[in-house]
Amino acid sequence: PKQTNTMLLNWTPNPSEDNLRGSSLMRFATNQVFHAFVRGIFSTHSKEPARFEKLPAWAEDAISWLLRSYLPGDPNFYVESRGPEFGPETTKWALNLLERPFREILPKSAPTTEIIQLILITSESLGFSNLWVMVDGLEKLSTFHHAQAEDLLEAMLSTLSLFEEQGFVFKLFIPDSMES
């Protein structure tokens, strides 16, 4: 299959149960985006395993760190339980990465921009020059959690550093009810 230089990530924002606002809400949301990136890695590996054949050790360590940091719950359980979705080769590959000795690539408190930069250089090692985050589902979120959807949109748009990272693009599908 032909390789593309843009990785598309689909992100459907989930509501917070803690009534978060501002930077706390933004951190909650970006963690969901980073989870979408990890799922994008699985999807890419299952469709284009050749991208991963000559991956440098530092990139494998970065992916291992991202798996441990942004998969919900126990990473091994998550990978094993999603085996049918991603296939046996990708499941085996991900479990092998999780067996690597843990390296704290970034501290848990790392700024979002540093995590994005790590994701971008890791993506570049896979041959991607751009990451597009397709944000869909704000309409559903706004139907049941209108104030939280508005707060999320406001937090995103006021965090300019997210939009300043070269090669990291957000495409927002904003419902008509939120366009004012």
Give a nutshell description of this structure.
This protein has helices at 22-47, 57-70, 75-81, 83-86, 88-99, 112-125, 138-144, 146-157, 160-164, and strands spanning 6-11, 130-135, 168-172.
Structural features, described:
The protein is globular, with a radius of gyration of 17 Å. A 3-stranded parallel sheet has the order 1-2-3. It has 9 helices and 3 strands. The model has no long low-confidence stretch (mean pLDDT 84). The protein is mainly alpha-helical.
| Category by helix and strand content | mainly alpha
Please, what is the average pLDDT? 84
**In this structure, how is the largest beta sheet organized?**
3 strands, parallel
User: What's the total helix number?
Assistant: 9
Radius of gyration: 17 Å
Oligomerization state of this entry?
Answer: single chain
Tell me the overall shape. globular
Q: What secondary-structure arrangement, pairings included, does this model have?
A:
Layout: E1 6-11, H1 22-47, H2 57-70, H3 75-81, H4 83-86, H5 88-99, H6 112-125, E2 130-135, H7 138-144, H8 146-157, H9 160-164, E3 168-172
Parallel strand pairs: 1-2, 2-3
